[in-house]
């Protein structure tokens, strides 16, 4: 919590390979020089099936659902061997980038570069401070993310109750600030953000439906989520090579077209 998901979000193109009508036409024989003898009827010729170029078959393809396994991490995980992570079947990672209006995770830049070098798709997430203006938090997050390219996962926001502020705001005020954050992030990155709602936060505020136009990252440790999701956080105690101690493990399913 590279290149599967840039994948992860696009349709596939079916390539149709064939020959043009000119390629299939019989070749005109070379002409002999004029003869001084009386003309004779040309001898009949036959064409072997091998002499005619056959159209190449159209590749047969089918759509399949592909499961991608990923982790989310921060400075709490300490040093990470991203090559070992990649070799353990992990294809993407979400890394904590920022929190509130000033905090930057000290491991973000290093983990991001190393994970990308190991072939993982990487995205950054922001831990939302419930008592700080959403636009100010978005500006801080965007400044740390920098420019995104096609290999980056979309930015994400982490909405939780823990550690935010002593007196959380009312639902209407909080929802307005979260929307301001999401709109600012999308305007700057030109990528639609992903929303992670910790279960206790959702129980308190009930904003999943109100933010339903955004892709959802759903934590469900006891089985498949009971609402629509783009990322499913399956466990917070996973074991992955290259990471000491427990780590969050997530799934993304994509539809991809492959050759039969």
Oligomer classification = single chain
What average pLDDT do the residues reach? 84
Output the strand order for the largest sheet. 1-2-4-5-6-7-8-9
The fourth-level CATH homologous superfamily is Glycosidases
Secondary-structure class? alpha/beta
Strand content: 15-25%
Q: What would you call the shape?
A: globular
- The CATH first-level class comes to Alpha Beta
CATH topology: TIM Barrel
- Write down the secondary-structure element order: HEHEEHEHEHEHEEE
Radius of gyration: 29 Å
Protein name: GH25 family lysozyme
Keywords: Glycosidase, Hydrolase
Region (Disordered): 21-67
Family: Belongs to the glycosyl hydrolase 25 family.
List keywords for this structure.
8-stranded mixed β-barrel; about 260 residues; TIM Barrel; alpha/beta; 9 strands; single chain; about 20% helix; Glyco_hydro_fam25_subgr
Give a brief description.
Belongs to the glycosyl hydrolase 25 family. This protein has 260 residues and is α/β, with parallel strands linked by helices.
Can you give a write-up of this model?
Belongs to the glycosyl hydrolase 25 family. InterPro entries: GH, Glyco_hydro_25, Glyco_hydro_fam25_subgr. Residues 21-67 are annotated as: Disordered. This is GH25 family lysozyme. It comes from Nocardioides bizhenqiangii. This protein has 260 residues and is an alpha/beta fold. It has one domain (61-259): TIM Barrel. Helices cover 22% and strands 25% of the residues. It has 6 helices and 9 strands, in the order αβαββαβαβαβαβββ. An 8-stranded mixed β-barrel has the order 1-2-4-5-6-7-8-9. Strand 8 (231-238) and strand 9 form a beta hairpin. Helix 4 packs parallel to helix 5 (171-189). The longest helix has 19 residues, at 171-189. The chain is globular and about 75 Å long. It starts with 20 loop residues before the first helix and ends with a strand. Mean pLDDT is 84; it is low at 7-40.
């Amino acid at each position: 919590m590279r290149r599967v998901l840039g994948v992860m979000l696009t349709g596939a193109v079916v390539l149709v390979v064939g020959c043009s009508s000119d390629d299939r036409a019989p070749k005109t024989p070379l002409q002999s020089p004029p003869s001084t003898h009386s003309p004779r009827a040309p001898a009949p010729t036959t064409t072997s099936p091998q002499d005619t170029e056959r159209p190449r078959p159209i590749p047969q393809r089918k759509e399949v659902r592909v499961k991608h396994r990923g982790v989310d991490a921060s400075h709490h995980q300490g040093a990470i061997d991203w090559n070992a992570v990649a070799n353990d079947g992990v294809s993407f990672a979400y890394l904590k980038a920022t929190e509130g209006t000033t905090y930057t995770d000290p491991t973000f830049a290093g983990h991001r570069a190393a994970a990308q070098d190991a072939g993982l798709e990487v995205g950054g997430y922001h831990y939302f401070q419930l008592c700080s203006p959403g636009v100010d938090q978005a500006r801080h997050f965007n400044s740390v993310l920098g420019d995104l390219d096609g290999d980056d996962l979309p930015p994400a926001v982490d909405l939780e109750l823990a550690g935010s502020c002593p007196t959380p705001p009312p639902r209407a005020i909080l929802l307005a600030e979260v929307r301001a954050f999401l709109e600012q992030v999308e305007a700057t990155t030109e990528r639609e953000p992903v929303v992670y709602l910790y279960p206790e936060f959702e129980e308190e505020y009930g904003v999943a439906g109100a933010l339903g136009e955004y892709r959802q990252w759903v934590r469900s440790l006891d089985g498949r989520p009971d609402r629509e999701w783009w990322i499913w956080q399956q466990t917070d105690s996973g074991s992955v090579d290259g990471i000491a101690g427990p780590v969050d493990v997530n799934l993304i399913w994509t539809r991809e077209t492959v050759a039969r």
